[in-house]
Automatic annotation (TrEMBL):
It is an enzyme of class 2 (transferase). This is CDP-alcohol phosphatidyltransferase family protein. Keywords: Membrane, Transferase, Transmembrane, Transmembrane helix. GO terms for molecular function: transferase activity. Its EC number is 2.7.8.-. The chain crosses the membrane at residues 35-57, 91-109, 116-139, 170-189, 201-227, 233-250. Belongs to the CDP-alcohol phosphatidyltransferase class-I family. InterPro entries: CDP-OH_P_trans (IPR000462), CDP-OH_PTrfase_TM_dom (IPR043130), CDP_ALCOHOL_P_TRANSF_CS (IPR048254). It holds the Pfam family CDP-OH_P_transf. It comes from Lacihabitans lacunae.
Length: 255
C-alpha cells in the first residue's frame, strides 16, 4: 500500500490485487506501456467479463473480474514508479469504474430476471459504499506523511494539469467525473462534514471499511458467479449497505 506511510497502512481487503499488480509492473516497467494504457486495458477486460456474464460463462467471467481489479491497481503503480502522476488517469479510472458497475448490474438483472429498478437501487448502494470508503481513505492519504496527494477530499474545480497532460482533457474528464460522482460525494460529505478534521483513522476501522471497496465488491461478484448464485448478487449489495450508518457513527463518536 504505497499510498500511505508505514504507520497508516492497514489490511485492505479490496486491494488484494496489489501484489499481482506490482509483479506485472516490475516485469513491464521498462516497456512503453503507460499508466493510462493499463487503465484502458482494465476497462476492456471489464467489458469482456460483463459479456461473459451476459452469456452465462460464469467461470470465465469470475477470473476476468479479478484481472480487472489487478489492472486497476497496476495503472497507479506504473504512475508512481515512473513518477508520472496524472489527473487524466485518475479521472478516467473512476469514470470507467462507475460505467462498468452500472452495466454489470444491468446485465445481472437481465440474466436473473430482477426488476431493473432493483438493480439501480443496488447500483446506488454500491456507489454509496465505495464513496464512503474512498472518502475516508483519501482523507487518510492526504494526512499521511508522504502519502499520495493526487486524489483530493474536496474537488470543486478542475486541478491544474501536470506538464505531461492536456489541461483541456483534464477539464473535460473532471466535468464528467463530477457529473457521475457528484451526487454520491455530496451525500456522503453531508453525513460527516467534520471527517477531514480527524487526526487519523485506526487501522481496524479502515480494514473493516475496505469491504466496501470496489476490489472486494468485484471479488464478491466473482464468488457468487462461481457458486452459481448470481441471483443473490443484487440483494447482497443492497443488504450490505445496512452497515453504512455504523461506520459514520463510529467515526463521529470515537475519531
Amino acid at each position: 500500500m504505497p499510498k500511505l506511510s508505514e504507520k497508516d497502512r492497514f489490511i485492505d481487503f479490496s486491494d488484494y490485487g496489489r501484489p499481482a499488480a506490482q509483479f506485472i509492473v516490475r516485469k513491464l516497467i521498462h516497456t512503453k506501456i503507460s499508466a493510462i494504457e493499463y487503465t484502458i486495458a482494465f476497462g476492456i477486460v471489464g467489458l469482456v467479463a460483463i459479456y461473459c456474464i451476459y452469456n452465462s460463462y460464469f467461470y470465465l467471467a469470475a477470473p476476468l473480474l479479478i484481472l480487472k481489479s489487478i489492472l486497476d491497481a497496476a495503472d497507479g503503480e506504473v504512475a508512481r514508479v515512473k513518477k508520472t502522476p496524472s489527473y487524466t488517469g485518475r479521472y478516467l479510472d473512476s469514470i470507467f469504474d462507475i460505467i462498468l458497475n452500472f452495466i454489470l448490474l444491468a446485465v445481472i438483472a437481465h440474466i436473473t430476471l430482477t426488476p431493473y429498478w432493483v438493480a439501480f437501487l443496488a447500483f446506488v448502494c454500491i456507489q454509496i459504499q465505495g464513496t464512503l470508503y474512498n472518502f475516508y481513505y483519501v482523507i487518510l492519504r492526504n494526512k499521511s506523511e508522504g502519502g499520495d496527494q493526487t486524489s483530493k477530499v474536496f474537488e470543486k474545480k478542475a486541478p491544474r494539469a501536470f506538464p505531461q497532460e492536456s489541461q483541456k482533457t483534464v477539464n473535460f474528464l473532471f466535468g464528467l467525473f463530477t457529473l457521475l460522482y457528484g451526487v454520491f460525494d455530496r451525500f456522503v460529505y453531508s453525513l460527516d462534514r467534520k471527517a477531514s478534521k480527524s487526526d487519523r483513522f485506526p487501522n481496524w476501522f479502515m480494514s473493516a471499511l475496505s469491504f466496501y471497496g470496489l476490489g472486494f465488491q468485484l471479488l464478491a461478484v466473482a464468488v457468487f458467479l462461481v457458486l452459481d448464485l448470481s441471483q443473490y448478487i443484487i440483494p447482497y449489495f443492497i443488504m450490505s449497505t445496512v452497515a453504512f450508518p455504523f461506520f459514520i457513527l463510529v467515526r463521529k463518536i470515537k475519531y
